[in-house]
Amino acid sequence: MLRGLWKLTWLEFKIFVREPLGLIGTVVIPVLVFVVASRMLGGGGRMRPPPPDVPRIMSVDLPVLISILIALSAVLSLITIVAIYRESGILKRLRATPLRPQTILTAHVLVKLLLIAMSLAAMLLAGRRYFPIGTSVPVLSYAAALAFTTTSILSMGFLIASIVPTARFAQPFGTLILYPMLGISGLFVPVEFFPPALQALARMLPLTYAVSLLRGIWHGDPWSAHVLDVAALSVFFFLCTAAVSKVFRWE
Amino acid sequence: MAAPVVRVENIRKLYGTTVAVSDVSFEVQPGEIFGLIGPNGAGKTTTMECVEGLRAPDGGRIAVFGLDPVRDVYRLQDRIGVQLQEAQLQKRIKVWEAIDLWASLYSRALDGTRLLEQLGLTEKRNAWFMTLSGGQKQRLFIALALINDPELVFLDELTTGLDPQARRAIWDLVRGIRDRGKTVFLTTHLMEEAERLCDRVAIIDHGRIVDVASPAELVQKHCPERTVVVTTDDPAAPERFEAIPHVDSVMREGQRFTIRGRGRDLVTQVIECLAIHRLRVIDFRTELPTLEDVFLRLTGHSIRD
Questions:
Q1: What is the pTM of this model?
Q2: How far away is chain B from the Cα of A85, in angstroms, using its nearest Cα?
Q3: What is the pLDDT along chain A (251 residues), one digit of tens a residue?
Q4: What is the per-residue pLDDT for A130?
Q5: CA of B29 to nearest chain A CA: how many angstroms apart?
Q6: Would you list which residues of chain B are within 8 Å, Cβ to Cβ, of chain A?
């Protein structure tokens, strides 16, 4: 299965970078948004509580929000790429080779993870004046948490990509699923404040656990405090991957 | 006789309620160039994709090197090369990157640079796929099908979009593959291509095989008539021509005589007649039936419809 994986991953990365809009949208813009928002809050982040007249939504942990948005945009672009590859016959061409379908999809996942890592690094670098030296941001731990969360959300992206009928539907379809999911994930309003039915729904969705995990790690919680989140995300990952191998359409 | 490389038995393929392929059977022998020929929409690509393992037939059996192409698709990959009729690659992939990627996937690969040279793509090594012309893309796909030096090569409408010069170069390339002991399975709707290239052909129309044989045999069997047109002002000509054995008709238009008959010997006999009787010849032309005539005779419609 690994035959061709590294070569394909590196090749897909090079191809992605050749398209200027892709890199700008995926890395540059989120980082810019982060820096601008941080400035607007007067360097809120972890250092100072937000001023009382700032609306509730702005007191959200900005890095967590930006991270999730980066991950979601990666998932959306993944869904779109798969749909486009399928429609244009690229998948079909790749299929008549020793490349396994899992290899092709994994290569795309790795490229997305690499881009997210780059975004995160850029974000931390650009935002370091808002997090002065001495701030103990557990970077490695957070990066690991983000990688883990993203992989899990990406598997959901593949499932969506498997069922999306055409490339034209890919983006709206994905958006309609992912962003409402974000709305009830507890990022803006704690899950406990939802009506019971919505709470139950939120607890079935991966983003809720992702938010909980990322927020916790950012604030320095040990991983052991988030065993439930990790377990839920893992289960979700395995379920989606199993479903994808059954449901994936090559054309 | 050695075991056939490809054996197709009574396959069927439906798309919804449309029957694309119904009851198709044929064999491809090792070391031959085998052509599946017919008009667009006849079921050639569907049949080929079933043999390649890209589609599963709804009925019948297929064996490639004795293996089931759908179930054993990965075991077969090292031994076959596939050029699809409609294919795409990533827009911004460079030509050499595609060759390099493909070469890395197989246990054995030819020299990519040399292959690009043979296909006239050396200048475009660093070009992005989307900047290539239709003919250049086609040649790249052929290169990708050959990069692993496969024992069996599938070529679907291989000269689409190529100018006549490139077409002939590809024909030479394909013959070279056969001469090195490989087997080629191709589809085409161009009768000239089938006649020049294929050792044997299977004519397919509306999802059914009409006949399978070498081009010469098909012509002899289904269109045995021959025509020789002689232009002569020799007064003895009409009488002499009528006397040629096995001649069906001699039609005259001024100095031009259209002699029609059956069998391979007609042309020889006309020439002998001219030589023996020392008839003065101004112009001499033969009209031999082609696979297009065979197709028309067998199916009742032209291949161009």
A1: 0.80
A2: 8
A3: 567 889 999 999 999 889 878 778 777 877 787 777 777 765 444 445 555 554 444 445 777 887 888 788 778 888 888 888 888 888 778 778 888 777 887 888 888 888 878 887 787 777 766 654 445 567 788 888 888 898 888 888 888 888 887 878 888 888 888 888 888 888 888 888 888 888 888 888 888 999 989 888 888 888 888 899 999 999 999 998 888 878 777 76
A4: 62
A5: 22
A6: 52-54, 74, 77-78, 82, 84, 86-93, 97, 100-102, 104-106, 128, 141
Longest dimension (CA), chain A: 61
- DSSP letters, chain B, are -PPPSEEEEEEEEEETTEEEEEEEEEEE-TT-EEEEE--TTSSHHHHHHHHHTSS--SEEEEEETTB-TTTTHHHHHTTEEEE-SS----TT-BHHHHHHHHHHHSSS---HHHHHHHTT-GGGTT-BGGGS-HHHHHHHHHHHHHTT--SEEEEESTTTT--HHHHHHHHHHHHHHHHTT-EEEEEES-HHHHHHH-SEEEEEETTEEEEEE-HHHHHHHH--EEEEEEE---TTHHHHHHTSTTEEEEEEETTEEEEEEESTTHHHHHHHHHHHTT---SEEEEE---HHHHHHHHHSS-TT-
- The pLDDT score that the predictor gives to residue A60 is 53
Q: A11, B102: Cβ pair inside 8 Å?
A: no
CA–CA distance, A219 with B209 (Å, rounded to integer): 71
Distance of CA A63 to CAs A123, A182, B129, Å? Answer: 9, 15, 39
Are B84 and A89 within 8 A, CB to CB? yes
Q: What is the mean pLDDT of chain B?
A: 91
Chain B CB contacts of A14 under 8 Å are 97
* Domain with A179 in it: 2-247
Q: ipTM strictly over 0.85?
A: no
Helix (H) / strand (E) containing A199: helix A196-202
Q: How many domains does chain A have?
A: 1
